[in-house]
Recover the amino acids of this structure.
């Protein structure tokens, strides 16, 4: 009996790291779109029924924007969006970045 118990214990210890590795390498969806707010006002981001607020000098990461439209608007009447740039430059963690500037 002790031989069987030891054998099962050793097998469990040997196989445990494999199951932990498999659990931690779960595929996550890549970030498809990053919205960067370079205005001095918060901006609203809408996607389906979800609404978020991106504060000045903050970023928002959107997933699955190809199946759900992303809409950007100002949060107050005095806020202004002057330029919207689309790029995949440095500092962008996503496949595509939208840079919103204003003032």
């Amino acid at each position: 009996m002790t031989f069987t118990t030891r054998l099962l214990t050793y097998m469990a210890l040997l196989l445990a790291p494999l199951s932990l590795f498999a659990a931690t390498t779960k595929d996550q969806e890549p970030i498809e779109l990053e919205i960067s707010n370079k205005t001095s006002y918060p901006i609203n981001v809408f996607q389906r029924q979800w609404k978020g607020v991106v504060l000045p000098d903050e970023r928002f990461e959107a997933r699955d924007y190809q199946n759900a439209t992303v809409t950007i608007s100002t949060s107050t009447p005095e806020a202004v969006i002057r330029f919207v740039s689309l790029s995949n430059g440095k500092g962008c963690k996503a496949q595509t970045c939208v840079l919103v500037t204003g003032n």
Residues 41 and 79 are 6 Å apart (CA to CA). The first strand starts at residue 33 and ends at 38. Strands lie at 33-38, 43-47, 50-54, 59-62, 70-74, 81-87, 96-102.
